[in-house]
Amino acid sequence: NLPKTNPAYRIFSSPQVQKGMLACAEWADVLSVSTTYLKKVVEKNWGHLTNVVTKKPIPVMVYENRVDPTFFVPKPYEEREYITIGWAGSNTHAGDLAEVWPILFKILNEYKNVKLELVGHNAPFKHERVIQKEWVHISEYTYCISNWNWDIFLAPLEQHKFNDSKSNIKLQEAGILGRPCLAGQAKPYEDFCKGNPRLEWQLCSIPLRWENKLKTLIEDKSLRFELGKEMREHTLEHFHIQDIEKDWDAIAVEAMR
Q: 3-state DSSP call for residue 39?
């Protein structure tokens, strides 16, 4: 399901890499994945797998992404020279970002009090208020994303089957830091906002909505604050890591059978 335009396609389409992944999987007692959709994909392709030692079938279990609030340090809202829009991820998100590059360029030219900070990907245009942050090790990520102190998070997501298996971790990260996050109108993000019309407002299905909603958030500090507060409350209620300890227990029990 990985699009050929994705930089990772060259790696994961390799028969050698696929063979290696399968060989590793056959040593597992349990395969854990982060979404129900991904579980279905793995079961469809690898449902026949048995452990090379025990010869038992290898179950596929869902262990969803969740955030641990103790790893993050939310910053209070304060008046600053710039409103910062932020995004972090690898270059495999090139297709996701393509939808919003023209809008971000327009926003930067229209609003002199806005800057864009990027981690893990370069903008396709030059601008004095585009800041390329240094890539950080995963062990430092939650500390860094807390201290980057972005005002508005971005989570565009290209519409294709591969992305249907993604989790909503980007919204969880924004939420635990008490910040709004404009996101693509895609299933993982719809699931995060489900049942909350105010959070659903953050979902953008077409470029015009990205532009209009970015402008609204830039111009309305109180809305940024209110949405951020609601994002944090929603994340703590529905996406706290303590809520899935039982899932990990179930995986451990299954692995010991």
A: helix
